[in-house]
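DM from R.C. (forwarded with permission)

"hey, sorry to bug you on a friday — could you get me a structure for this? deadline for the figure draft is monday and I only need the backbone to look sensible"
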Amino acid sequence: MLVLGQVEQGKLPGGKHCSIKGKDSNLHFFNEKSTSLLTGTMPTPYREVDYTILQDHGEGVVRYECDVHAQMKEDVRRPIYGAPPILRRKEGKRRLCFGSLVVGLLALLSFVTYELSLYVQNANAIPAFARKYGFSCNVCHVPGFPKLNDTGNIFRDQGYQLGGDGDLPTHEGITMGYFPLSFRTTVGYQAANVRTDGSGVSTGGFGFTGLDILSFGLLHRDISFGLVFTPGLGSAGFGTGASDGDLEAAYVRLNRLERFLGVQGETGTYLMNLKVGKFELDVPFSEKRSPTLNTPFVLYHYMPGTPYTATVSGTSTSTYLNPNSFAIGENSPGIEMAGITKTAVTDGYFRYSLSGLSTNTFSGPLSGCPATTTCGTGGRNVNFYGHMTQSFGGYGIVTGQRIGLFGVYGNAPTMVNATCPTCQAVAGSGQPFSRIGADVSLTFDGQWNLFGAFMHGNDSKNLFVSQGIANAQNASWNGGFVELDWYPTQLPLVGMPGWLLSYRYDIIRNDRQGDPTFAKNYNNVDSHTFMARYYIHQSNRTDIALHAEYNTYRTEGVGSKNVVGPGGACAPACGNLFGQTMLVGFDFAY
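My reply, with the result:
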């Protein structure tokens, strides 16, 4: 047993597997050419993990290095050398299963990726920060981009800094050739269809999802920034719709402001961090970091009165007007105060986020707009979002468990500016809406993550009164999702590392519609998503993964002939909307 801080440099107890027992450390395995073979994160104090290296060819001297990462100081780096037991990888029988389309696809991927694994070296890294710190990818991701592990989430919560001089953009170890910029897209084949009332729309073809140009990092000690640019591309989304060019995110964050109030916390405590700009809300589980590429979290984007669809639309459906276009999954302009601190009693972390959000991005229909006039939307108002979590025995993504609460209260503009109809809407005309929910994340064996969220939503009846809906009432609904991620150390049967397998179920159930002529179960949603992802290669320059994803969903009672049947349920004539999406491709970043 190697104990961090108690290992003499250059020495290794003979005949022992290497494990490490320490605080906020990472364990690196290198070959004789100093190429990273495997890295293991140790984000929780005094948690023991054992590693055994598998090689295809023989045995060799492997250098162990306890690298410097979250909360560690330069003087605790402990390079050590030795020749531990090395095992040859044993070939396993490949077995194909054709019980279903999804299982068959996974079997095909297993065969292809098994062959790839014989030729591709498993040197893991993520481009932007890998070029700065020399990280291996699975220091911050599990088992690769884009999902963050415990260490990656802490690194993000601390404003993309480790606490050492190496964070600074002027550090002598950072060459002039380094620039904190990454590009990401997915190329491959996508097929999608949607149908309602016996008619539908289908599409399929080769192409790409879109393009993200990302830049995150530090401007100065405790001053971080983030930029995400999505250029307008006419053939994005595999030809299903052109994308608009926009800055998806642009913000500056001032970290550890508690210092100016005389508050001195222990290492790793960031109690007051102020973010200003446009950014992703601190949602229970980041959609931007989700391994699923073209299947949204329904809960994050659901709007009463608008039938839910994914990827493609175009069928005839029934709707009613709702001025509230707020969705917690959309990036919003505003200001955020957030913090994170270790909690010794739970061996975990307490986090919080409080945001004030501008309504100038609202795009819902407004009353009072003259005919043939394109009226302004939005409105100069502020809505509020909050989220807090407490974890136990770790951060709660790879190790430990986590619970959380989140909520929104705001006002949606309902009237145009009578003096200037093409200007922003009248802020004082806003009508209230609210969202409140809970989230939980459970982990097991460092390979399983079961997580989910539940949310109750309510839109004031005055939002619908403003649209001329007779006898309008509050729109009330409940939504949630549960996802299981499995990132096995070795995939059974084929004995391969580098896999991520996921299943997610999304659900929406309505209690009451804003328009009473619509059935209670109108726009209820059931969605199933299956995903398999194999990390072919990741280095400090490039990342590429083979990705397969399938989604099927049903949106209830949204057909063009909406009729309320017995008990308030939608009569059969209403019709359900059915949709499917399949994507197979290469997700890569540089």
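R.C.: lifesaver. The chain has five helices and 26 strands.
me: no worries. The two ends are 38 Å apart (CA to CA).
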